[in-house]
Design a protein that fits this description.
43% helix, alpha+beta, Alpha-Beta Plaits, four-stranded antiparallel β-sheet, 4 strands
């Protein structure tokens, strides 16, 4: 199944929610899973992004739906990227 990298930043409302109810992060992960996406890993970060998540989804459209669903709440801004496993990338580059 394809992998995606999700870089996210909380808005002021998002930070307020996380401060008052940190477990909300895990609740959102369950909501993501209900949309057909597996959260493979997730990290809180220091620097330009607040969180990095690695997701597994059947296709780009499913990730777009996750981005729309979460982004429309006004508590988070996200950037998503398709991730190609390095062995697959190398194999593709060797094909003629």
């Amino acid at each position: 199944m394809p992998h995606y990298i999700l870089l996210s930043n909380l808005t002021d409302d998002g930070w307020k929610t996380v401060r008052e109810k940190p477990d909300r992060i895990k609740e959102v992960n369950k909501e993501i899973q209900a949309l057909g996406v597996k959260v493979v890993g997730q990290w809180a970060c220091l620097g330009p992004f607040d969180f990095v998540s690695i997701l597994e989804a059947p296709n780009n459209e499913t990730i777009a739906k996750v981005s729309l669903e979460l982004g429309s709440r006004g508590t988070i801004r996200m950037q998503s990227f398709a991730a190609i496993p390095i062995d697959e990338f190398i194999a593709t580059m060797k094909k003629k």
